[in-house]
């Protein structure tokens, strides 16, 4: 299929599931933030299951081709996996500077060697797989970004820490594909925030995390949630480097930052997950406006290598706005398919 559509990962969680007002007020959690949930224990899992079904049905009704679970079970995109590892202390966190200048974030401390002692998101995939016949995508934090969202009291060696994060991720990635995932995505926004450091050790860590993957793999990088970063640069500080990694797909923002799509020519071996929904604008785009954003990339990327997606995760949007934007994107894909087919 030309121009398939997908989410980058998250979809708005219902107000009855999580305290969305509090969620919007704080920096995306890196340690656990259990106080955000409206309920606890077995009722929480049931509620998260029900919210996942709502997210799946919204995506299907909107016409999305590759479905996610909406990340309904997460306080943030990264902390669900990271805080589940042995060697990570989330109950006694530390405070470090945030990626957003002038703010701080609460992060888990690394107190011993990191290990994945049990699957973390396998049930998420199994549940999602049971809800839809469409291909499914699951997201987990990438190894480089993980190293930037913790306080290291054990390794004192970031490349070594990243490789142990990658080893834990690799075990998870393999299990996620076995559980039924069609696409597994590593979220790596800190590649953009720390490009010099990323050039030192990010690519080997990403490749280690994806080693032996039996399905389609992706890496997502962005400038941050639109709800957190209103002014975004028009170019990436780390992007062409990803053509050397083993991931099949690279996911980027183009809508809100009005990215110069010429840089996509420097990723000749990759499928591009093209961010074409501006999540900083509460106006629902017209399908033609979304299609026009895709056309900006066509001089540099063949249609066969383009997937349509929002710029970033949609969790901070009102649900009706998120649904409207997804529907516009699906209709834009239909317009583009007709154009390419002549």
Fold and architecture overview:
- The chain is an alpha/beta fold and about 350 residues long.
- The protein has helices at about 20-25, 40-60, 80, 120-130, 145, 160-180, 190-195, 195-210, 285-295, 320-340; strands at about 85-95, 105-115, 135-140, 150, 185, 215-220, 250-255, 270-275, 305-310.
- The strands form 2 sheets. It has a 6-stranded parallel sheet.
- The longest helix has 23 residues, at about 320-340.
- The protein is globular.
List the helices and strands and how they pair.
Elements: H1 20-25, H2 42-62, H3 79-82, E1 86-97, E2 104-115, H4 122-131, E3 137-141, H5 143-147, E4 151-152, H6 158-178, E5 183-187, H7 190-193, H8 195-209, E6 216-220, E7 249-253, E8 271-275, H9 287-295, E9 306-309, H10 319-341
Parallel strand pairs: 2-4, 3-5, 5-6, 6-7, 7-8, 8-9
Antiparallel strand pairs: 1-2
Helix pairs in contact: 2-10, 6-8, 9-10
Helix proportion: 25-40%
Count of strand segments: 9
Using only C-alpha atoms, the radius of gyration works out to: 19 Å
Strand percent estimate: 15-25%
Global morphology: globular
Number of helices: 10
What is the mean predicted local confidence, pLDDT?
A: 94
Q: Which structural category fits the helices and strands?
A: alpha/beta
Largest sheet: 6 strands, parallel
Strand order, largest beta sheet: 3-5-6-7-8-9
């Amino acid at each position: 299929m030309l121009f398939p559509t997908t989410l980058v990962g998250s979809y708005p969680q219902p107000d009855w599931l999580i305290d969305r007002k509090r969620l919007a007020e704080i920096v995306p959690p890196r340690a656990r933030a259990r106080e955000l949930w409206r309920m606890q224990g077995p009722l929480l899992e049931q509620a998260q299951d029900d919210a996942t079904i709502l997210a799946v049905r919204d995506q299907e009704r909107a016409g999305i081709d590759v479905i996610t679970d909406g990340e309904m079970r997460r306080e943030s995109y990264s902390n669900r996996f990271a805080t589940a590892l042995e060697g990570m202390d989330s109950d006694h966190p530390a405070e470090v500077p945030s990626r957003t200048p002038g703010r701080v974030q609460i992060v888990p401390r690394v107190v011993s060697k990191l290990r994945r002692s049990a699957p973390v998101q396998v049930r998420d995939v199994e549940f999602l797989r049971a809800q839809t016949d469409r291909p499914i995508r699951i997201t987990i934090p990438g190894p480089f970004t993980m190293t930037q969202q913790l306080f290291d009291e054990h390794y004192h060696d970031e490349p070594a820490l990243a490789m142990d994060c990658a080893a834990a991720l690799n075990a998870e990635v393999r299990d996620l594909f076995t559980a039924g995932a069609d696409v597994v995505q590593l979220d790596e926004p800190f590649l953009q925030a720390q490009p010099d450091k990323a050039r030192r050790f990010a690519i080997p860590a990403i490749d280690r995390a994806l080693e032996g993957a039996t399905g389609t793999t992706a890496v997502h990088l962005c400038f941050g949630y639109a709800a957190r970063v209103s002014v975004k640069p028009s170019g990436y500080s780390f992007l062409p480097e990803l053509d050397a990694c083993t991931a099949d797909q690279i996911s980027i923002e183009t809508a809100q930052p009005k990215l110069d799509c010429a840089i996509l020519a420097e990723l000749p071996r990759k499928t591009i997950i093209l961010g074409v929904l501006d999540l900083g604008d509460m106006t629902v785009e017209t399908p033609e406006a979304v299609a026009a954003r895709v056309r900006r990339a066509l001089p540099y990327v063949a249609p066969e290598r383009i997937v349509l997606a929002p710029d970033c995760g949609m969790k901070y949007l009102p649900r009706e706005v998120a649904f409207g934007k997804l529907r516009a994107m699906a209709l834009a894909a239909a317009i583009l398919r007709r154009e390419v087919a002549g």
